[in-house]
Amino acid sequence: MSGRLSSRLSEYRLFVREYVRNFRTTGAILPSSRGLARALSRYVARGGPKHVLEVGPGTGAVTEQIIARMGPEDRLDLVELNGSFVERLRERFETEPAFRQVAPRCRIFHQAVEDLPAEPTYDVIVSGLPLNNFTPEEVARIVAVLRGLLRPGGTLSFFEYIGIRLARSWLARREERRRLRGITRVLGDMLGPHQIRRDWIWPNVPPAWVHHVRFCPGHAGSPAPPSCADDLAPRRPSG
Ligand SMILES: C[S@@+](CC[C@H](N)C(=O)[O-])C[C@H]1O[C@@H](n2cnc3c(N)ncnc32)[C@H](O)[C@@H]1O
């Protein structure tokens, strides 16, 4: 078996194990597909130099695509709650050539994103958090934290599985339906007016939307003003 394939399989094994042990915070049974990871890291390829934060990198499926798009002066912070994933990420930054190349400009924080210092530090945030597993209050708090970590004009990219809350609501009891509806309301109210782009990712299990959001100074409603719109910054090839 090739080294690449065996390391991919060991990532899958670790992910499944952590899904079973920590279902609520892991939220997915497998790492994101390459298509989903590429869409999530779309804004890393634009402009620069910039400071990027990846929230919930897991085994590094999205990190791989982020580092492929980083410019020579870009920096990357990763914040991950799960110690087994942190260990795996550290190993990748020590052993894999693409990770080693950017390692001096990367930091890994083993903690909850909610505990990062609340300062506008980042130009791009890529989040893999499983928001559907949290309460509406937790989602509202996390969104507020992420917004507080973004510099003015910065971009937040995050994903959700297409139609999953609706599908789960059909099968759920009343309490659970209320929770899922609450999450939809929180995301719609707090992020909907600021969305600048949505990608549909069919080759993922299950298929997913990637939402890209930009909070522009003085912009509270829709549509986004031209200065806040998508695709204005110069871009590097995004592979
Ligand atoms: C759905 S997985 C995504 C993993 C990876 N980004 C991917 O797409 O393959 C969610 C990740 O978020 C992490 N996580 C959950 N809650 C977190 C929090 N409050 N702060 C930081 N990481 C968190 C989990 O440990 C897990 O690695």
Task: Provide a descriptive summary of the structure in words.
The chain is built from 9 helices and 7 strands. It is an alpha/beta fold and 239 residues long. The protein has one domain: Rossmann fold, CATH 3.40.50.150. It has a 7-stranded mixed sheet. A hairpin with a 6-residue loop joins strand 6 and strand 7. The longest helix is centred in the first third of the chain and has 19 residues. The structure holds S-adenosylmethionine (SAM). The site of S-adenosylmethionine has 23 residues, from helix 2, helix 4 and strand 2.
H/E element sequence: HHHEHEHHEEHEHHEE
Q: Termini, distance in Å? A: 27 Å
The number of helices is 9
Number of domains: 1
CATH topology: Rossmann fold
Overall radius of gyration: 17 Å
Average pLDDT, rounded to a whole number, is: 90
The structural class is alpha/beta
- CATH C-level category: Alpha Beta
Question: What strand line-up does the widest sheet have?
Answer: 3-2-1-4-5-7-6
DSSP summary, beta strand count? 7
How would you characterize the largest beta sheet?
7 strands, mixed
Which molecules other than protein and nucleic acid are bound? S-adenosylmethionine
Strand residue percentage: 15-25%
Shape: globular
**Superfamily (CATH H level) name:** Vaccinia Virus protein VP39
Helix content: 40-55%
Produce a short descriptive summary.
This protein has helices at residues 3-21, 23-26, 34-40, 61-69, 83-95, 97-102, 136-149, 164-171, 174-190; strands at 51-55, 75-80, 106-110, 122-127, 150-161, 195-201, 208-214. The chain is α/β, with parallel strands linked by helices. Strands 3-2-1-4-5-7-6 form a seven-stranded mixed sheet.
